[in-house]
# Entry
Amino acid sequence: MRILLVEDDKTIASGLEYSLQQDQFSTVICYNVESAKNVLVKQLDQFALCLVDLSLPDGSGYEICKIVKEQSDIPVIFLTAIDDEVNVVMGLDMGADDYITKPFRVRELLSRIKSVLRRYQKQPLAKTIIDIDPVRIHTQEGKVYKHGTEISVTALEYRLLLIFANHVGQILSRNQLLEQIWDVAGDFVNDNTLTVYIKRLREKLEDDPKEPTFIKTVRGLGYKVGE
# Structure
């Protein structure tokens, strides 16, 4: 599998390239936003995943993530030295699939990469249309509607919604949700990210996000959608 690595620190980039190649990944390295854009224009469909530094000399990794997500469903993982909620939430809202804060262990990064790739390889629901009043999900198109109006959701918000759709009426604990979203790499993920996704989905799907009736909180147990 081919990975686009965007990292301005050439020492870090070289080390990551070596580690990825040792794990049977091929890589293309870019050191700034401009060169990454040029590569994506010509080769976007050739990549299985993009590994992008958030802070780059001529811009931000957000720009690269936006380009990728507007044109494809290729996963994006951010490398960031900025470990604060605002930047993490912004990246996740743009559709990024995961983030890892520097300094990190290479084995941890490889586990996250493989986990994200497994999620993208999983088959969608057999049903093509799922109705959970007032929400309708078109799984073949990857679209979500509320009262007939399309609602824009990020890739991971959509995946979280599908988990609920697969378990209508069931109480799902936070651990169950994290295991299904993040697969076996759940131990590496900050639990706060789940809170972010729940909050964003409620803001988009609830009539009153402060008094949710679609994604219900079952105190001390988890969350439930539907009867």
